[in-house]
Every structure is written in structure tokens, then in C-alpha cells.
Amino acid sequence: MATSEFGLAETYSNDLLWRRYLELTKPKVVALILFTALVGMLLATPGMVPLSTLFFGLLGIGLCAGAGAALNHVIDRRVDALMDRTRRRPLPSGDLDARHAVAFALGMAAVSMLVLTVFVNPLTALLTFAAFIGYAVIYTIYLKRATPQNIVWGGIAGAMPPLLGWTAVTGEIAVEGLLLALLVFIWTPPHFWALAIKRRAEYARADIPMLPVTHGLTYTKLQILIYSLLLLWVSLLPFLIHMSGRLYLLGALGLGLGFVYQAVRLLRSESDARAMKTFGYSILYLSVLFVFLVADHYLGSV
Asked: Cα 198 vs. chain centroid, distance in angstroms?
């Protein structure tokens, strides 16, 4: 559907237009962000999270995450047009224009900061804004195009949600909240590099220096294995510092060894299908690991 750079297509139906704006926010990514933030909230208190903190905290964090995703769409719109995975997104497809997308993103970011500052606490608002700048500006504009370690350093912003959940409840930064962020930080590179193996030709065409493009498949697979081993060790720290008990320990060991197994099979395989299986397992890993954290927190050790 044709449209100018600064004008929406007049024929684009209103009933579909809101879906394209929703797509700008990367709702599946935001859902995972909100899940890890929720876990941070639940682990920060022995009882239930106050409903106002739960609602406004998740609302503010979700709005800011969606705003960052929308700016990512704007900044990457020309690169997205070169990649099969992203060329149907709202901006490269011409369904939305950059001006409206920027206004939409900045509006969400402003509402997010207002909600978090007024109804949660200033620390959570400040950390959420820092994560927003880290992802939408530092990672998307600079790191993504500057270094094959882009996803490692960019992962700092992506690791913030569980810490944000923790600070939303407690109003302070604690070792436990930082450890939750560390788990996501270590998990991010092997998760994303597995997908990058599958999409390496598209990244090369878009001139994005992802690790499989700059260093080859074998090196990338070895890095995934190294990070999966590191993740296994880091995932034991909640038990070692007495943040969690034996129920979590059993879950972390089983899931971590499963990730290492997936990484070993990927290293030995020549098939891109194995990379996508590793990518799929990584999503399952993080989700279930955080479920074990919550279950252990409320049910206690076995």
C-alpha cells in the first residue's frame, strides 16, 4: 500500500490501523519483558504485591518497552526493508509513516515516566528511562552497527525488567534484583545468536555485523556453548546466596543442562533447523526458570 514518508495511506482501514500501531510495540517481546518484571515484583516481597504497584508498575514498564520497540522500528526501517523477517513491518511496508510512529513512541514514553514517577517510585522511573535510552538509542543507533558484540552490550538494557519489578516494590536496588538481571543478561547472547545463525544472510545483506556474519558459524556456536555453561553457573547463584531453595535448584539444574545439551548439538550440527530449536529452547528455558523462582518463593523447598 503506497504512502508518503510523512503521511498515512488514506485508504488504510481504521480497523486495521490500530493493529499496525500495536505491531510497532513488538507485543510478544513486551509480554516477555512484563513477565520477567512481574517475577521481580513477586520475589521482592514475601506476600502478594500491592495491587496498585502491580498495575501501575507493569503499565509503566510495558508502555516504555513498547515505546523503545516503536523507536527501534523507526530507526531500523530501511534495514528492515532488506530483511525477509522484517520487511512486512508497518514502516517498511508503507502502512505507517515515521512521523506518526515517533509521536506514538514518545507519547508512550512520556506517559510511562508519569505513571512510574507518580504511582510507583522515582527510582523505577529513572531505571526504566535508562533502559529505554540504552535500547532505543545506544543499542539501535550505535552498538547494533558498530560491533559483533552488539547483543552482549545491548543486552544490559534488555536485562533490566526483573530489576525494575524489584525496585517497583521495594524502592531500592538489592543484590537479589541485580542477580535476576544478570540471569537475563547472560541468557540474551546465546538466545539471540541462535536466531542470528538462521538469519545470517539477511544480516549480511543489511550490513549488520552480527557474530555469525563477522566470525562464522563455528565460532558463534562455540560462543553459544560457552554462554550456556556460564548461564548454568549463574542460574545456581540464587540457591547459593539463599535467595531460593531446593525446588528452584532442581529446576535450574535440569533446565541449564538442557540448554548445554542444545548448545552441544548445535555445535555438532550443520543444520539451521538445529539453530532454531536452540532458539526455541532458550525462550522455554527463561520462562520456566522464572516460574521455578516464583514457585520456590511461595511453595518453599522440597
From this structure: 19
Three-class SS state of 179: helix
Q: What count of other Cβ atoms lies within 10 Å of the Cβ of residue 196?
A: 23
pLDDT tens figures, 125-172: 999 999 999 998 899 888 888 898 889 888 899 999 999 999 999 999
Radius of gyration of the chain (CA): 20
What are the extents of the domains in the chain?
Answer: 1-173, 175-302
pLDDT tens per residue, range 238-267? 999 999 999 999 999 999 999 999 999 999
Amino acid at 172: E
Measured between alpha carbons, how far is residue 46 from residues 30, 173, 236 in Å? 26, 17, 21
Q: Which residues of the chain have pLDDT under 70?
A: 1-15, 301-302
CATH value of 1-173 in 3.40.50.2300, 1.10.3720.10, 1.10.730.10, 1.10.357.140: 1.10.357.140
Half-sphere exposure of 295 (CA within 13 A, CB side): 14
Q: How far apart are CA 25 and CA 65, in angstroms?
A: 7
CB 60 within 8 A of CB 125: yes
Rounded to 10 degrees, what is the CA torsion of 56, 58, 63, 69?
Answer: 170
Torsion of CA 19, 134, 141, 65, to 10 degrees: 0
Using alpha carbons, select from 187, 212, 208, 185 the residue that is nearest to residue 198. 212
